[in-house]
Amino acid sequence: MLQKKHFLILLFLIVPLLNIIAQENIVNQQTLEDFIEEIASSSDEEYDYTALFEDLNYFLTNPININTAKAEELEKIQFLNDFQIRSLEYYIKRNGPLLSIYELQLIPGFSQELIQNILPFITISTKNKNIEYNFRNAIKYGSNQLFIRTQYIIENQEGYSAITDSALLASPNSRYLGSSPKLYTKYSYHYKDKLYYGITAEKDAGEEFFTGNNKKGFDYYSAHLQINDLGFVKTLALGDYELKFGQGLILWSSMSFGKSPYVLNIRKKAQGIKKYSSANENQFMRGIATTIEYENFELSAFYSKKKIDANITDSIDNEIAAVSSFQNSGLHATQSAVADKDAIGEVITGGNITYNHRLFKVGLTYAQFQYDANLLSNPSTNNIFDFQGDKTYNIGLNYQFAIKDISFFGEEAICKNGGKAFLNGALFYVAPQISLSTIHRHYEPEYRGLYSTAFAENSDNSNEDGLYFGVEIHPIKHFTIKSYYDSYSFPWLSFNADAPSSGYDFFGQIDYNLNRNTSMYFRYKRETQEKNTNSDSGLKELNSKYLQKIRFHITYKVSDNLRFKNRIVLSEYKEEFKDKEYGFMMYQDIDYNFSNIPLSLNFRYALFNTDTYNTRIYAYEKDVLYAFSIPAYYSKGSRFYLNIKYTIHNYLDIWLRYSQTYFADKNTISSGLNEIYGNTKSEIKVQIQFKF
To answer: pTM score, two decimals?
Structure first.
């Protein structure tokens, strides 16, 4: 029966292709959402994309003047790679400022697709307007935003069910301490790109609110102040902030993406010191940081002091003496989680000095980490190289330069125990139709960067050797071919591999832009690795496993108000000496904007059928502003969601989101405290945004 449904829906997906009407494409915030979906589609984890979204969303209302923008400003438009930025700068230097947006078509490396993507974020002016920076203008022209959001699972979960006092006393972690709604509020202010300040507060599901351990309200508070271009002070940050230097081997304290469909964008665009306004409760800095400019030099210094979560293993006279690991979930909904909250103090100090030359850039970064308790993990062959003790440091050198049509970049780092990490890459502009990228990394097992998120297969930049090649080809009009191959090995034991192991990733995608209203792509991805497998004797052996996925996706705009998206994904998983496992998912998206009222709708209906969790399929979902959802489709069933957004006089936006997953082959969903007795899981979100 399910197969017949799939066939009927497949017909429904294909028939609209025969009736597509060419309409004038109005590029807007949809471009931003599509970009984040492409980044999110390459990861199986739900990262916080707030910082990336904030940057691009800012440029929607404050476009960059590409005639006067510096390279570091253009890098904030994540669509542009090194070649395109250099090509734009050379064109303006040779021919003068651009007089029309259509002139971008004359610049090598600027395809029609790229121009369409960046149009919402750029502007063209022949004059460089100097913004007068004073308190009166900041008060008069500044922008204020206030967000209030709540969300909760409708079905009853085990962690919120009734229990006797005696049972709870005997097993205190058997229930959540607080209520089920997740609460979020955020106030932010900015004046141009000169002044930012704001506060963020969050209560996760199950955490207490104005009671118990959180008598002051929310479980998490964050505040920031950032001032830019104040005389010779390029940036001054107070409160919570993040650091992004080099290629991320030492300091990159926010979300970082690596392998993605943007196969040429492998070099990280370091922004140095930047305000922090996200809801990740551990991966940020708290204190003061500044960057000072003097001629071609930039000198940055930072000091951060805050409490972090950790698993306590030893205490003396109520003073914590040792912890076994750091915790990054930010969830404090049970007795044990509350005990681990803010368990130890962390102090981070250091700085960066960068020399910016017209032809090259070079920087030196140093960071020292001090904790007020020892990190002492249980010794094993897997963790003998892990950081132990209460103090460590990292120091490294990063560079960037270009020779003709080749751009080089990299970072080399060392930590306190002598472990070293090397990352070097290059971008090649072979011809107007062909560009190549490559990156090599060598991370010794001894290297430990506590806030490093450089290009890697694994989440930590340690115990990995790898070589990546990417290519982008524009063979004929309307077609683009993107592909990468990444081969890597782990010289020492790693997660799920009790011996040195290796693997490779292959990605290929063909994009076809039929016209300005219709685009589609076909994607193939295969990941092969060696992992532990239990043998007949009960011993663990390394065997090869692979996961491959095939995806077809089409987006077509029927009118200025109506747009459709359709996707079909097939997955296959195979372990050596075991049967193959298969998965399938397909969805229909409908986006509709009403003409006469400020109301927009986003709807999705999806069907999925996977043999096991190994063949799960992730898909990015539209959500309320600054919320992100990338659920795993697995087992057998269906899922739908509906987003409604209503705007009142441009001062008030209201979102309502309802989603539900139905499992045809389950009587219970999830496990432990999140277990639901039934086969449906539903969630509702309500968000209000005030702009003044």
So the answer is: 0.88
Identify the bridge partners of residue 659 per DSSP, sorted by sequence position.
Answer: 641, 683
pLDDT of residue 627: 87
The percent of the chain in helix, strand and coil, each rounded to the nearest 5, is 15, 50, 35
pLDDT confidence band for 522 (50 / 70 / 90): very high
3-class DSSP state of 82: helix
Residue with tokens 């040792």: 322
**Domain-embedded: residue 247:** no
Residue 517 has pLDDT above 90, yes or no: no
As a whole number, mean pLDDT of residues 174-199 equals 94
> How far apart, in whole angstroms, are the C-alpha atoms of residue 471 and residue 451?
30
Q: Diameter of the chain by CA atoms? A: 81
- 534 HSE (CA, 13 A, CB side): 2
User: Do 66 and 124 touch, CB atoms closer than 8 A?
Assistant: yes
Reported as type and span, the H/E element at residue 311 is strand 310-316
Q: How far is CA 668 from CA 156, 606, 664, 672, 678, in A?
A: 12, 20, 11, 11, 5
First to last CA, the chain: 53
Q: Are 117 and 664 in contact (CB under 8 A)?
A: no
69 vs 470: which has the higher pLDDT: 470
Least confident of 222-236, 307-321, 450-464, 566-580: 307-321
194 domain residue, yes or no: no
- Rounded CA separation 647/438 (Å): 46
- Predicted confidence (pLDDT) at residue 44 exceeds the cutoff of 60: no
Q: How many whole angstroms separate alpha carbon 92 and alpha carbon 90?
A: 6
Distances (CA, A) of 614 to 140, 164, 533, 536, 667: 55, 38, 14, 22, 20
Domain membership flag for residue 56: no
Q: Which residue has the tokens 């121009």?
A: 115
What's the whole-number average pLDDT of the chain? 88
Residue 495: its pLDDT value, please? 80
d(CA 219, CA 330): 9
Model pLDDT for residues 402-423, shown as the tens digit of each residue: 998 899 999 999 999 999 999 9
Look up the domain containing 104 and give its range. 61-123
Sole residue written with tokens 């990490």? 421
Please tell me the distance from the alpha carbon of residue 300 to that of residue 304, in angstroms, as a whole number.
Answer: 13
pLDDT at 321: 81
Angle ∠(202,326,39) on CA atoms, nearest 5:
60
**Euclidean distance between CA atoms 65 and 613, whole angstroms:** 48
Residue 394 lies inside a defined structural domain of this protein: no
Q: Give the Cα separation of 56 and 31 in Å (integer).
A: 10
Q: Are 443 and 429 in contact (CB under 8 A)?
A: no
Alpha-carbon torsion (459, 460, 461, 465), positive or negative:
negative
d(CA 267, CA 425): 8
Using 50, 70 and 90 to split pLDDT, how confident is the model at 385? confident
Helices marked H in 416-484: none
Number of structural domains found in the chain: 1
> Which residue's structure tokens are 């665009």?
269
At residue 45, the pLDDT reads 58
Phi (first) and psi of residue 54, to 5 degrees: -60, -45
* CB hemisphere CA count around 444 (13 angstroms): 13
CA distance 185 to 148: 4
CA distance 322 to 298: 39
Residue 201, beta-bridge partner list: 185, 221
